[in-house]
Amino acid sequence: MIIVIDCIGDPCPLPLIKAEKKLRKLKGDDQLCLEIDHNCALNSIPEWARKKGYQVKVEETPYLEWKIYIKKIEKKQLKEEVVFKKQKE
After folding, report:
1. How does pLDDT run across 32-48, given as a tens digit for each residue?
2. Domain boundaries, the chain
3. Contact between residue 66 and residue 42 where contact means Cβ atoms under 8 Å apart
4. C-alpha span between 84 and 64 (Å, rounded)
5. Strands 54-61 and 65-72
6. pTM attached to this predicted model
7. Where does the UPF0033 domain lie (predicted)?
8. Pairing relation of β-strands 2-6 and 54-61?
């Protein structure tokens, strides 16, 4: 389920505060969608969410507005595979 938060017109740091509160309550495959219209939130929220380990996707909409999708990542998805390539001899 996608939970939408309308942050149009909200100055920083209100969108980030709203996102943080809702993200604590997300379950399973739920996603958060923040609708924003401030450049500072466009930069700060995705950066913050990635540092916290969330998956982030940003979409630009008409009228200089954006949608930031934030989703929890399962621990098993966080594992990174390291592949060593053999050098040609």
Report:
1. 999 999 999 999 999 99
2. 2-78
3. yes
4. 44
5. antiparallel
6. 0.79
7. 4-72
8. unpaired
